[in-house]
Amino acid sequence: MNLIAAADRNWAIGYQGRLLVSIPADHKMFRETTTGKVVILGRKTLDTFPGGLPLPNRTNIILSKNTEFRAKDAVVVGSLEELLSVTKQYNSEDLYVIGGESIYRLLLPYCDTAIITKIDYAYSADAYLPDLSKSPEWTMTGESEEMTCFDIEYTFQRWERMKG
Known about the structure:
Blueprint: E1 2-7, E2 12-15, E3 18-19, H1 24-34, E4 38-42, H2 43-47, E5 59-63, E6 74-77, H3 80-87, E7 95-99, H4 101-107, E8 113-119, E9 127-128, E10 138-143, E11 147-149, E12 152-161
Parallel strand pairs: 1-7, 1-8, 4-5, 4-7, 5-6
Antiparallel strand pairs: 2-3, 2-9, 8-12, 10-12, 11-12
């Protein structure tokens, strides 16, 4: 299973239910990486999408504590156990955890790869990813050249869980 996110210098990912910043190249990389794949997200993240609708051209699996919740063109699961059962039918390499904070924290132990757009700035934030650089289990195995969007500097990083 993979995790994909944009995080600032402090591993912050959001503020008041929104992304910290919009970087077109990050959105393009996200789209190219996840199209045709399976995305796993929470209901609150779904609410932030245009029209509150699942992402097109992907299998959307939404984890919600609300057992009545339904989403058009999406699979809704109510527990981690149900999610893990449903995801068994897919190749683990095709699964992408896309947020938000509680979903990332819940599923990080099941992820082997993290694709991070690392933004060289510290934003005001209220949602964070665990700091992979402080975890002995995780190692950065790749990083792009530094890029700039207006005055925002960022890189694309690949992190992998080291097999013990």
